[in-house]
Amino acid sequence: MIFGPRYFTGAQWSAIRSGTPNPPWLFGLPHLSQSAGLDGVFGWPPVSGGKEIPRATWLSYLEQLRSHERSIPVVFPGFHDIYREAGLHDSYGFIDSSSGNTFKETLSLALEGRSQIVQIATWNDYGEGTVIEPTVCNGYRYLEMVQAALPTQGAFTPEDLRLPVKLYTLRKQVAGDATLTARLQNVSDLLFAGNCAEARALLDSAP
Predict the structure, then answer these.
(1) Buried b (16+ CB within 10 A) or exposed e, 81-110
(2) Which of the residues 46, 60, 110, 192 could staple to 73 if both were Cys, CB 3.0 to 4.6 A apart?
(3) Of 69, 72, 70, 46, whose CA–CA distance to 59 is shortest?
(4) pTM over 0.70
């Protein structure tokens, strides 16, 4: 996925990937992809002009995205940037989170499509209000929605999502203690391996 493209031309993209034995497909934003000669499109929160984008407008955008032969759907919790307040430039626009319903609806639409890839934009961009990581305001709401929508539902619990924060907090508390730090590294390895039960047991027994 190429955010744009805004610089290289279609001929240049052909040259860029000509040296690869299996040239990758390139996906760009819908209004720029075709002119650059890319293979498909991917979606992005459709904000523009600093205006509030109503639900009907972004729903229409998502529907048009699905009409492309090769498209990667986009999921977003809303959009609320700080650029104007920060004195950088005008705001791109605003999409209401609707208390989590915007994310829930865009996620459902994306999973209904035929694409093998679903993009969540932009995971952790606090400056644009598209963060889905845990926050004081939203808690673990968005991660729990993703967890519930995945085929692995049941393999992990909402409580498992809280283990990395507990690990982080304990690491700060025992900083400088080599023995306990090594023990917590073992917890990290277990989490990456998906063994949440054993990781939780070690965390619960930690000082």
Answers:
(1) beeeeeeeeebbbbbebeeeebbbbbbebb
(2) 110
(3) 46
(4) yes
